[in-house]
Amino acid sequence: MAKQALILIDIQNDYFPQGKWPLVGVEAAADKARQLLQAFRQAGDAVIHVRHEFTADDAPFFTPGSEGAHLHPKVLNENDEPVVLKHFVNAFRQTNLREVLEQRSITDLVVVGSMSHMCIDAVVRAAADYGYTVTVIHDACATRDLEFNGKTVAAAQVHEAYMASLAFAYASVVSADEFLKA
């Protein structure tokens, strides 16, 4: 029987409006993540938080020990919910995430968080490569405008492109409402 876990990626203070690296739509995405978090807790399913800290004090955001690097109050972990600390984009790289999943016999991952084009993309692709069945809740993820070749790419376009890419071969990509109704 499949056993699932909710993986909350980098829903941290620096990504919110008063933080060092605010994302477009982060409040709405965090609200959806909170809905999923409550549903997983009520069902008794596993919940794993992932938190990023850069290793240098001059990092652009998520500086070690800073308030900005803390989990956002909307999705704080409870006592029995592990928090995986990472220092790279991919939450599996040099962390105990895989061990935490294996200890709980997890086969299916439900992924939410930030940023769509970086840490969400990396963890979903790695998880699929490790053999996990992955679902991404697209409206519980956020990103920001990017610049490429002198042009601004709007956050909505960045998000849509990455969700479309992940949906092609790595994950089921659905809304929070779709997931919660299923």
From TrEMBL:
It comes from the Bacteria. Keywords: Hydrolase. Residues 5-149 form the Isochorismatase-like domain. One of its GO terms (molecular function) is hydrolase activity. Gene3D superfamilies: Isochorismatase-like. This is Isochorismatase family protein.
